Amino acid sequence: MSDRAAEVFVITDCGSTTTKAILVERKDGVFRETFRGEAPTTVEAPFEDVTVGVATAIEELSAVSGRRILNEDGAIVRPARGGQGVDAYLSTSSAGGGLQMAVAGVVRRISAESAERAALGAGAIVADVVACDDPRPLHEQIERVRKLRPDMALLAGGVDGGADLRVIEMAELLAAADPRPRFGEGYRLPVIFAGNREVREQVAAAFGDKVELSAVDNIRPTVDEENLGPARDRIHEIFLDHVMRQAPGFAKLVGWTDAPVMPTPSAVGEILKATAERDGVATLCVDIGGATTDVFSVVDGVFTRTVSANLGMSYSAANVVAACGIQNVRRWLPFDLSAAEILNRLLNKTIRPTTVPDTVPDLLVEQALAREALRLSFAQHQSFATALKGRRHDMNIDKAFSGGGDDGTLVRPMAIDLIIGSGGVLSHAPHPGETAAMLIDAFLPEGVTRLAKDSIFMMPHLGVLSCVNREAALSVLEHDCLQELGTCVAPVGRTKPGRTCLSFAMRTGERETRGELAFGELRVIPLASGEDAELSLTPARGFDVGAGPGARVSAGVRGGLVGLILDGRGRPLAWPGGEDERLRGVRSWLEALGVPVSEGG
Amino acid sequence: MARASIPGLLVSPRAMVRRRRVLPIRGEVLVEQGQSVGATDVVARALLPGEIHPVNVASVLGVPCAEVPSCMRVAAGESVRRGRLLAESRSFFGMFRQIVESPVDGILESVSKVTGQIMLRAAPKPLEITAYMPGRVASVIPGFGVEIEAEIAFVQGIFGVGGEQSGTLVRISDRPGEKVDADGILDVHRGAILAGGGRVTREALARLGAVGARGLVTSSMDAADLLELIGATRNLSVTGDEGLGFTLILTEGFGELPMAARTFDLLASLAGHTVSVSGATQIRAGVIRPDVSAAPLDSAPRSRDLSTSVEPGARVRIVRGKAFGALGRVEGIPEAPRITGSGGRSLVLEIRLDDGGLVEAPRSNVELIHADGGVG
Asked: Of B294, B321, B354, which residue constitutes the final position of a domain?
């Protein structure tokens, strides 16, 4: 980068199928995303060089922007001068399957869970977690580790100075499995030891020269403390220095960039943390793909990421159905379709994942599946985002082994201020009401919650940009990345259908809208994008909108593509009894949000 | 001229096909570049390391970890048979004897005096890779395998389960769309690869296994039947190792879908010939589709145009929505996205269907049929 403050950035995200490039420029003192381009990712044959796709995406960006970014030799033109070149090139990557890790610990719900949290927070896909209390027989665990072929492994266990030798046993097991890295024949698998610092030598002896071992500070120095930072940093270092250099073309990519290449999910975490910190909002973000669903949250300053590896819209559709039951998918449809027919449609999507719904019923079947995939992913996220398990005042170790403990989640729906949806089914839903409906039905937000979508999944780009220029990243996030859908107000409580559960008054400038919300009703009050309003909410006795049962709440709210959504369906959602009532209810909810509904097809 | 690029499944009476045949770990390649091979010839082999069996000797014998080496009756690196004495200890003036016997045939790999744990490795298992299709070794990947090139009759399916099989192809349906039920699968079909034309029933699948048929290639099945066959939580994006005893290949998908006439006719022409089938399907990156391959018939013309480029006039098939399976010709390739029936915006093709109707279909819902070889 040049000495003057950088004003023009080209940023790529190398995804598993597509490499997306964006151009960020300072215009009239404000950083904006000005152009975008994309190309197929080229990690696999015949190219086997990620930079081919990067160069193509940047060339497309050049074509639409008129800015020359690559010179004749294919090198980035720096610095930006007279409408040519850029000041910095940054990139994230999840290509080639992203960063895949194996995680091992002593107690599944203590050291192994902390290690998993560190790996997920560093942007990894955790291929498997093994632990001494794993219900699988040991030889099965070893066989599994041997077959995994991860990019690296993380081993944790034991408190500092503790006498527990099981982490050494685990090291012996891993050594016996002799796991091989995914890329690079003859290259030794990097293993990070983040356990009891007193047994580092014995752990090293157990591995011998089978792996590339490095040690960092204990991830659980005491049962009351979790110290994820050193393990997370080492994962990033190894990702850059070893893993990326083995993947096709990545060594070249690392040489092109002006800041370290980040794993895509790790970059998403960075931008979420930046916005949550600046605005003081508790944020939940979801990215639903064909195979997996990533859920990120920042609540009370604590960042948590989970990956639901088998919950997705195409490859994993059968797993979603297996986990939730076909009737739970069917319940979201406003028309009668047999369970067998729904399953046929979903699995046809699995085997032809690039096809798109071209009838309303087909679209609604996919969106029904999305609600369940999101709901299950969120439940997994909530159960993972908890206070530390195994703390002395909570339990003893025996209790942890037996699976007991405090499961109170940090990510309570009432605590969430903003939900951001991303991924094809959410971002490309034809109608914004459909996206809002999926987010509300899946996450069941409580109280007052803003809803937004990232229509092209630009957050990875902005995450890596935030590490270089936070102001620029937040500016683009606000102006170009997030599309506001509106604000959802959901009183928590139960009463008979039709009874008033909330009285509200919304003031926008001189305009005031007053009304009452009936239990079971879903209603939208127009409030356009860019419009702000003052909201006064008076819940009925026993209902809570954030300040406790029956307590009045005043809040400034934002409009959006849908508006102000008043959700009186209760929490948990109160389903209308009987099949005809269910069909009518689901239809009325969708129609309230402006979603086209039709039968047939 | 307007163009678009869309994929298609290859269905050809004679096409030049290349196939990688590689070991999962380094081994030995048994053939040379340029060599002719048969479908069942072994081209590479390796020894897969045996499973590891850990035994915590210290806890079984009730001795401190540091004393485990002195209790061992077998040295690290030594071969052992299942049941052989590995370690022993005596306590209470030698009156009580505790022993550890080997749970497997294999090798004692290590003894830890830190944890008291020993590792036994079971005997390695041989793994062989065949050529799968008759052809020529186009290239050798040293230590791992080969690429075989062959001119063959070739049918790609959309989804399959089960590994590689070969046998005589027997046609069991008279026309596309004819249901494959249990009555049509006979005892004489043992060892055969069956070719149907319509949806296969749950009962027929059970019968397939009972008679010992090696495979079935047909158009479709109910998704619920598939999940019952292979397990509801099985990963559908990578298949091929289900161990069903037979291979199942679907050419169209799930539901009541007739086989494309072109696919049906080609399979019918191969009846009585030896075919190889592979159910292995990989839907994610590096897509692999299941296939049927056989030596081409003498009269079969060669497919040349296998590109994915579409121009007006190209023959295509719709693979989603109300018109699933409908054939037609591309009439227009609009450059701007259009609003589709779902309300979404998509790049589309204007297609004149064989029944005369004109429809717009998202490009991603259309498969190309090559002019001289074809996609089913």
From this structure: B294
- Map out the domains of chain A as residue ranges: 8-95, 98-252, 283-592
Instruction: Calculate mean pLDDT across residues B307-313.
Output: 79
Q: How close is the nearest chain A Cα to the Cα of B22, in Å?
A: 15
Residues of chain A in contact with residue B233, where contact means CB-CB under 8 angstroms, are 310, 318-319, 322
Shortest CA distance from B159: residue in chain A: A351
For residue B184, the model assigns a pLDDT of 95
From residue A504, give the alpha-carbon distance in Å to each of A515, A526, A539, A545, A572: 6, 14, 8, 11, 21
**Residue A338: predicted pLDDT:** 96
Angle, alpha carbons A543-A544-A548 (nearest 5°): 120
Predicted-assembly ipTM surpassing the 0.90 threshold? no
Domain CATH code at residue B216: 3.50.30
Choose from A100, A358, A456 for mutation: most chain B CBs within 10 A: A358
User: What tens digit of pLDDT does each residue of A153-168 get?
Assistant: 999 999 999 877 889 9
Interface of B with A in 199-258 (CB under 8 A): 222-224, 226-227, 232-237, 253-255
B256 in the same domain as B227: yes
Task: Inform me whether the pLDDT recorded for A395 exceeds 50.
Answer: no
Task: Give the pLDDT of residue A400.
Answer: 45
Distance between A364 CA and the closest CA of chain B, angstroms:
9
pLDDT band at B308, cuts 50/70/90?
A: low
Q: Residues 135-154, chain B: which have Cβ within 8 Å of A?
A: none
Same CATH topology for A8-95 and A98-252: the answer is no
pLDDT at A185: 66
Most distant CA pair in chain A: distance in Å? 75
Kindly state whether residue B24 falls inside one of the protein's structural domains.
no
Cβ-defined contact of A347 to B345 (cutoff 8 Å): no
Residue in A432, A389, A395 with CA at minimum distance from that of residue A407: A389
Same domain, B117 and B175: no
Question: Could you tell me if residue B177 is inside a domain?
Answer: yes
B345 contacts A176? CB cut-off 8 A: no
Q: Which residues of A touch B56 (CB under 8 A)?
A: 169
Whether residue B42 is contained in a domain is answered as no
Classified as helix, coil or strand, A441 is helix
Q: Are residues B308 and B283 in the same domain?
A: no
- CA B214 to chain CA centroid, nearest Å: 14
Gap between the Cα atoms of B129 and B161, Å rounded = 19
Whole-angstrom CA distances from B221 to A343, B174, B183, B184, B217 are 11, 18, 16, 16, 11
Claim to verify: residue B193 and residue B248 sit in the same structural domain? yes
Which fold is adopted by the domain A8-95? Answer: Nucleotidyltransferase; domain 5 (3.30.420)
Mutate to test the interface with B, among A19, A167, A185, A351 (most CBs of B within 10 A): A351
Q: Does B77 touch chain A (CB under 8 A)?
A: no
A 318-357 → B contacts, CB under 8 A: 318-319, 321-322, 339-341, 343-348, 350-357
Is residue B323 in a domain? yes
B340 shares a domain with B280: no
Q: Which residues of A touch B158 (CB under 8 A)?
A: 351-352
**Domain count within chain B:** 3
User: Distance between CA A581 and CA A576 in Å, rounded?
Assistant: 6
User: Residue B346 forms beta bridges with which residues?
Assistant: B338
Instruction: Please answer yes or no on whether B56 and A169 come within 8 Å at the CB atom.
Output: yes
What confidence tens digit (pLDDT) does each residue in A28-85 have? 999 999 999 988 888 776 788 899 999 999 999 999 999 999 999 899 999 999 889 9
How high is the pLDDT of residue A401? Answer: 45
Handedness of CA A164, A169, A174, A178 (dihedral sign): positive
How much is the pLDDT for A583?
96
- Which H/E stretch holds residue B153? strand B145-156
**Domain interval for residue B212:** 11-17+149-294
**β partners of residue B180:** B200
Same domain, B285 and B328: no
Q: What is the pLDDT of residues B69-106, one digit of tens each?
A: 999 999 999 999 999 999 999 877 777 889 999 999 99
CATH code, A98-252: 3.40.50.2300
